[in-house]
Write a structure and sequence with these properties.
Blueprint: E1 6-14, H1 17-28, E2 31-35, E3 39-43, E4 51-55, E5 59-67, H2 70-82, E6 87-89, H3 92-98, E7 102-107, E8 113-118, E9 135-145, H4 148-158, E10 162-167, E11 171-175, E12 183-187, E13 192-200, H5 203-215, E14 220-226, E15 233-238, E16 244-249, E17 263-265, E18 285-286
Parallel strand pairs: 1-4, 5-8, 9-12, 10-17, 13-16
Antiparallel strand pairs: 1-5, 2-3, 3-4, 6-7, 7-8, 9-13, 10-11, 11-12, 13-18, 14-15, 15-16
The structure holds ligand LTTKRYJ7 and fe (ii) ion.
The site of fe (ii) ion has 6 residues, from strand 9 and strand 13.
C-alpha cells in the first residue's frame, strides 16, 4: 500500500507564460516564488510551490503527491510495478526543478501523469500573496477520468486513499487525512486536470473574490454555491491555459474514521453538487501526453 502524505503541486504547460503567471498572482492571489526565462513557481502556503508553469504547450504536465521518505518511494515503485504500472524514476535535475529531494512518475490507468515526491521544500518565510484573496492553503486537486469507478479502484487498491463521498458515477471524493478530500476524480472524456482548489479563510473571502472576478470579467464556471459533500462554499473560475481554479471555505474534516460512511449523491438531483441549486460546468485542462519524459 502506498501511503500518500499530502498533495504537493500541479505542473502545467503554458503557451503564454507571462499571462499565466500574471493571472495566478494578480487574480488568483498566489505568491510568485521564482521565475526563470521559461518557468515559474507559485505558492499558496509553506510548500515551495503548489503550481509550476513550464513554457510550452498548454495542458497539465503532472500532479504531485508527497510520500514520507526514500524507503516509501522505493516501496511505491515496487508496488506500482507489481501492479503493471510503468514507473520512471526522476533525475537529479528533475528533482531540483521540482524542489523535492527525489521523485518518480507514473500514469494512472487513463493517462494522468502523477508524481510521487519526497521532501518537498518548505519556505517558512511569511507569504507575500499577490492580492488579499484570503488563501490559507492549497486544498485539493481533481483529476479527470472516463471511468470514475475504475479510478476509485486504482486509487483505493494501491494507495491509502479512502472514499468520502460519491456523486453517482460522476465524481469520487477521496481523502488521505482528516480533510474530506485532497484528491477528487471527475468524469471526463480524457485525462486531465479538472481543477485545483485553494481554501480561503472565510465566507466573506469567497464572496469578495466572486465580486473581484466578476468586475474583471473573469469567467465564473460555477458558484458561488455550497457542496453538500464537504459542506464547503465554492467558486470555480477559469484562468489562462485552460486551468480551472476553485476557492472554497469550510471544508468538512472527518475526525472519526471508523464512524464515517461514504454517501452516494444522485448527480441528476438539482442539489447533488450545489445545495443552493446553482448550475455550472467545470471544464478541464487536458493532460499533455509526455510519455513520462521529463519536462
Ligand atoms: C464537482 C466536484 C468534483 C466537487 C464536488 C464536491 C466538492 C466538495 O465537496 O468540496 C468539490 O470540491 C468538488 O470539486
Ligand atoms: Fe473541488
Amino acid at each position: 500500500m502506498i501511503h500518500l502524505q499530502d498533495i504537493a503541486y500541479v505542473r502545467s504547460g503554458a503557451a503564454d507564460l507571462a499571462t499565466a503567471v500574471g493571472f495566478a498572482v494578480d487574480v488568483v492571489g498566489l505568491e510568485l516564488v521564482e521565475r526563470t526565462g521559461d518557468r515559474a513557481w507559485l505558492r499558496a502556503d509553506e510548500r515551495h510551490h503548489c503550481l509550476a508553469f513550464v513554457e510550452g504547450r498548454s495542458g497539465v504536465l503532472s500532479t504531485g503527491f508527497t510520500v514520507s521518505d526514500e524507503n516509501a518511494l522505493a516501496d511505491a515503485e515496487r508496488t506500482l510495478e507489481a501492479a503493471g504500472v510503468k514507473v520512471v524514476r526522476g533525475s537529479a535535475a528533475g528533482a531540483r526543478e521540482r524542489h523535492v529531494r527525489d521523485y518518480l512518475a507514473f500514469e494512472d490507468p487513463f493517462g494522468n501523469v502523477v508524481e510521487l515526491v519526497t521532501d518537498q521544500v518548505r519556505l517558512p518565510r511569511p507569504l507575500a500573496f499577490g492580492r488579499p484573496a484570503g488563501i490559507t492553503e492549497f486544498g485539493h486537486l481533481c483529476l479527470d477520468a472516463p471511468d470514475v469507478r475504475a479510478a476509485y479502484r486504482f486509487w483505493s487498491s494501491l494507495f491509502n486513499t479512502r472514499v468520502s463521498d460519491w456523486i453517482g458515477d460522476r465524481a469520487c471524493l477521496l481523502r488521505i487525512d482528516p480533510v474530506h478530500h485532497k484528491l477528487a476524480v471527475f468524469k471526463g472524456d480524457r485525462p486531465g486536470l479538472c481543477h485545483m482548489n485553494f481554501q480561503v479563510a472565510s465566507l466573506d473571502d469567497v464572496m469578495r473574490n466572486w465580486r473581484f472576478l466578476e468586475e474583471r470579467g473573469v469567467e465564473i464556471e460555477f458558484g458561488p454555491g455550497r457542496h453538500p459533500q464537504s459542506t464547503a462554499v465554492f467558486l470555480y473560475f477559469k484562468g489562462p491555459e485552460g486551468l480551472t481554479y476553485e476557492y472554497s471555505y469550510g471544508v468538512r474534516r472527518i475526525t472519526d474514521e471508523q464512524a464515517w460512511r461514504p454517501r452516494y449523491f444522485d448527480p441528476d438531483e438539482p442539489d447533488a453538487i450545489d445545495m443552493w441549486r446553482g448550475k455550472g460546468s467545470i471544464s478541464s485542462q487536458p493532460q499533455l501526453s509526455t510519455g513520462l519524459v521529463e519536462r
